[in-house]
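Hi R.,

As promised on Friday, here is the backbone we talked about, encoded as C-alpha cells. Could you run it through your design pipeline when you get a chance and send me back a sequence?
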C-alpha cells in the first residue's frame, strides 16, 4: 500500500480524555522539598514552587514509595495520563484537573510508580505535584537515571496521534482519547534500548511549512527550544542532566503531504530548497548543542526522503561523521490510526526496525 500522504491529516491536537479508574479527589501535600527531590524525569520540565510544569507529550515521572497506597498530585485540565505501579497500568486519568488520584490496596512493601502524559496539549501548561504515600507509608529516594538518553523530534506521527483508534474516522473527542505517546515508536524504542527519552513532538507543524499551509507565522522550529509551548517567552534551561547521545529527527510530513495552495509563498522548488536549508540548519543547531559525540539520525519517508538524504550527505561530506540517514520502511503498516496516522501496530513495527538500525550504529553510550 503506498504512503497515504494526501489523506493524512496532521492537525494540531485538541484536548484529550480516556475513561479509566475513577480518581478520588482528596487533599494531599507532596514532600517538603517538592517533587523534583523525589521523582526522576527526563522530560523538559520547569520547577514552579511545589510543582513541575511541562507541555510536551510523553513526559513521564518515576518514583518509589513504601506502603499500601500512593497518591498522584496533578493540576491539568487538558491532558490524559496513565498511572503505572510496578510496571502495570492501574489507571488512565482523563483531563484530571486539580486533584490527587489515589491508588489503594497495594501489598505492603516497596513499589515503583510511574506517571506518563499520553497526548500533546501545546495550548495548555500541565503541572505535577509529586507522589505521596498513604498513611503509614513513605516516599522513598527517586529512582536512578538511566545511563542512555534519546531525544525524538517530530510531529503527530511521533506524538502518537490517534494510534489507539479502531477507525481512521475520528472526531475531536475520539482523537483526544486515542492518542498515546507511551505506545508510540519513540517510547517503545527507548525502552528496548534501556534509555531515558524526550518526545519533543508537535502535531501539524513542519520544518518550514505546516499542514496544508496553516499558521504560516510559526513552524516546528518556533517551539523547539521551549518547555512551556504556549509561552512565547519561555526557553527551556537544560539542568545539565540532559546529554543525549542520540537524537532522532522525523520531520517533513507536514511540509509536503499537501500541495502548495493559492496564496502560499512557495513553489514546489522553493519549498524543497527552503526545507533542505532549514533542515541543515536544524541539524547544525543540534550538533552545536550536544557536541560531536551525539549521533543524529535523520528519518526520510515519502516525498521528503530525497531531501533528507541530500542534507545528510552534504553534512557528512563537510566532515560531520555523526549524522546518519535512515529511510523509513513502512512495509506492513496499516495506517489505521486517526486520519490515516500510524496505528499502535505500525508504531511497534517502526520501533522494531528503528531499534535494529540503532543497535548497529557505533553510538558511544
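Update: got your reply. Pasting your designed sequence below so it's all in one thread:
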Amino acid at each position: 500500500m503506498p504512503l497515504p500522504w494526501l489523506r493524512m491529516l496532521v492537525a494540531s491536537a485538541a484536548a484529550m480524555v480516556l475513561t479509566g479508574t475513577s480518581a478520588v479527589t482528596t487533599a494531599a501535600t507532596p514532600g517538603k522539598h517538592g517533587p523534583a527531590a523525589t521523582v526522576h524525569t527526563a522530560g523538559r520540565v520547569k520547577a514552579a514552587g511545589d510543582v513541575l510544569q511541562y507541555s510536551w507529550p510523553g513526559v513521564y515521572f518515576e518514583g518509589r514509595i513504601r506502603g499500601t497506597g500512593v497518591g498522584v498530585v496533578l493540576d491539568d485540565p487538558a491532558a490524559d495520563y496513565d498511572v503505572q505501579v510496578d510496571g502495570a497500568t492501574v489507571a488512565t486519568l482523563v483531563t484530571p484537573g486539580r486533584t490527587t488520584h489515589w491508588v489503594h490496596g497495594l501489598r505492603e512493601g516497596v513499589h515503583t510508580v510511574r506517571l506518563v502524559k499520553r497526548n500533546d496539549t501545546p495550548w495548555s501548561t500541565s503541572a505535577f505535584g509529586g507522589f505521596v504515600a498513604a498513611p503509614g507509608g513513605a516516599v522513598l529516594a527517586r529512582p536512578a537515571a538511566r545511563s542512555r538518553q534519546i531525544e525524538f523530534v517530530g510531529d503527530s506521527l511521533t506524538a502518537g496521534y490517534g494510534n489507539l483508534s479502531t477507525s481512521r474516522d475520528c472526531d475531536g473527542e475520539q482523537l483526544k482519547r486515542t492518542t498515546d505517546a507511551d505506545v508510540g515508536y519513540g517510547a517503545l524504542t527507548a525502552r528496548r534500548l534501556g534509555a531515558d527519552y524526550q518526545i519533543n513532538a508537535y502535531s501539524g507543524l513542519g520544518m518550514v511549512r505546516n499542514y496544508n499551509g496553516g499558521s504560516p507565522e510559526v513552524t516546528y522550529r518556533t517551539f523547539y527550544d521551549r518547555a512551556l509551548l504556549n509561552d512565547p517567552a519561555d526557553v527551556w534551561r537544560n539542568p545539565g542532566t540532559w546529554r543525549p547521545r542520540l537524537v532522532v529527527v522525523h520531520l517533513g510530513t507536514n511540509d509536503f503531504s499537501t500541495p502548495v495552495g493559492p496564496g502560499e509563498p512557495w513553489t514546489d522548488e522553493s519549498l524543497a530548497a527552503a526545507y533542505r536549508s532549514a533542515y541543515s540548519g536544524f541539524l547544525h543547531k543540534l550538533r552545536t548543542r550536544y557536541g560531536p559525540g551525539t549521533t543524529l539520525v535523520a528519518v526520510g519517508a515519502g516525498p521528503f526522503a530525497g531531501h533528507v538524504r541530500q542534507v545528510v550527505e552534504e553534512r557528512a561530506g563537510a566532515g560531520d561523521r555523526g549524522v546518519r540517514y535512515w529511510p523509513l520502511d513502512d512495509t506492513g503498516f496499516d495506517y489505521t490510526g486517526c486520519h490515516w496516522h500510524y496505528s499502535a501496530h505500525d508504531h511497534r513495527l517502526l520501533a522494531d526496525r528503528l531499534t535494529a538500525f540503532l543497535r548497529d550504529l557505533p553510538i558511544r553510550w
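One thing I noticed while checking it: The helical segments are 156-159, 172-177, 185-192, 220-223, 253-256, 268-290, 305-317, 344-359.

Thanks again,
M.
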